[in-house]
Amino acid sequence: MERGLARSRDRQEPRIAPRRRIRLMIVDDSMVARAVLSRMIESDSDFEIAAVAGTAEDAIDALHAVRVDTILLDLEMPGAGGLKLIPDIIKAAGGARVMIVSSLADEGAEHTVRALAQGAADAMPKPGTGRFNGRFAEVMLSKLKALGRADDQPPLPEPIKLQGFGPLRAMPAEHIGLLAIGASTGGIHALATFFQALPPRIGAPILVTQHLPAPFMSVFARQLGVAARRETLVAEDGMPLLPDRILVAPGDAHLAVEAVNGGYVANLLNHPVSSGCMPSVDPMFASAGEEFGTAALGVILTGMGKDGLEGAATLVANGGSVLAQDEESCAVWGMPRAIIEAGLASAVMPPEKIARRVASRTGEEPCK
């Protein structure tokens, strides 16, 4: 009787298999750092160390044989270093995320902005030897749990060749009233390429929404200003839009445009959007079309997901145009692809050629 009851309870309460641990790779040339990080991580039963490497090149080789969820990557290492090879690591990682743990990764530091622009998911500064205190471990483990498992994350989009783009939309010939540019992963490089080919003057205000956290926006704006040879500011609410001045969306608000007293000003918004992005390209594109009509020109550059698609539809519906970056020159062909597939693009080309197309509507000669 007792055995029968036991079997009955077993049938009523089936065992639930425990969830697998989060698998990590540590890439750091310091044996001390690798050992300390390993001890911290293995103190939490949610994690396991699947691999370690002393250089970025070794990490890429190892990733061909082992699957991990997150890669902890130092930036200062022998060989090419972590920063330069981030795109190659991401490509080899098969969906794993990269978290920078480096002495170069202070909030707002230029190396961090470059790492995030190339696809790193998060970053935190590595303390000096002997200063790995409890607070550092607590923050690091919290960040790693937030990144989770690779199979819980939306997969990185694989580039798929389209069988032709279909008909592209006609673009008005009138002068541009507003240029609005959206970008995400790989966008900092694409923006630099774009502005190097753009004339020094186009006679229209320029808005930029680049997916980056708020602490990095001031460094990003400074870098972009140098590349673009223009005054570049992080946008503040009510800031006037001036010809050839670039306003950058802050990391904690969407950048839109609003007509006020015969001119136009920046309008910062905080409402949720369907893409989940903050800042999002959608409010910028939508407001550009609503306020400038056929004189509004949008540019969508490399990035993951579909941010900008809804705003582009509004921009085009009001008579404006959108130019999209082509697959071959994109780090991630997600945002441009979504707009192309929706039939909203007037051209599909690399950033330098997009700049020439923009110049054709200004009367200015593009830079050689």
Report what the structure shows:
With 368 residues, the chain is an alpha/beta fold. It has 2 domains: 22-152, Response regulator (Rossmann fold, 3-Layer(aba) Sandwich); 178-359, Rossmann fold (3-Layer(aba) Sandwich). Helices cover 33% and strands 19% of the residues. It has a 7-stranded parallel sheet, with helices on both faces. β6, α7 (187-197) and β7 (206-210) form a beta-alpha-beta unit. α3 packs parallel to α4 (86-93) and α7 (187-197) packs parallel to α8 (217-228). The relative contact order is 0.11. Residues 1-11 and 155-163 have low confidence and may be disordered.
Give me the secondary-structure topology.
Elements: H1 2-12, E1 22-27, H2 31-42, E2 47-53, H3 56-63, E3 70-73, H4 86-93, E4 97-102, H5 110-117, E5 122-125, H6 134-147, E6 178-183, H7 187-197, E7 206-210, H8 217-228, E8 232-234, E9 246-248, E10 254-260, E11 263-269, H9 281-292, E12 296-300, H10 309-317, E13 321-325, H11 335-341, E14 347-349, H12 351-359
Parallel strand pairs: 1-2, 1-3, 3-4, 4-5, 6-7, 6-12, 7-9, 8-9, 12-13, 13-14
Antiparallel strand pairs: 10-11
Helix pairs in contact: 3-4, 7-8, 7-12, 9-10
Strand content: 15-25%
CATH fold label of the largest domain: Rossmann fold
The CATH first-level class of the largest domain comes to Alpha Beta
N-C termini distance: 90 Å
Number of helices: 12
Domain unit count:
2
Low-confidence segments, given as residue ranges, are: 1-11, 155-163
Encode the helix/strand succession as letters.
Answer: HEHEHEHEHEHEHEHEEEEHEHEHEH
Instruction: Assign the structural class, choosing from mainly alpha, mainly beta, alpha/beta, alpha+beta, or little secondary structure.
Output: alpha/beta
- Total count of strands: 14
Helix content: 25-40%
According to CATH, the homologous superfamily of the largest domain is Methylesterase CheB, C-terminal domain
Mean pLDDT: 86
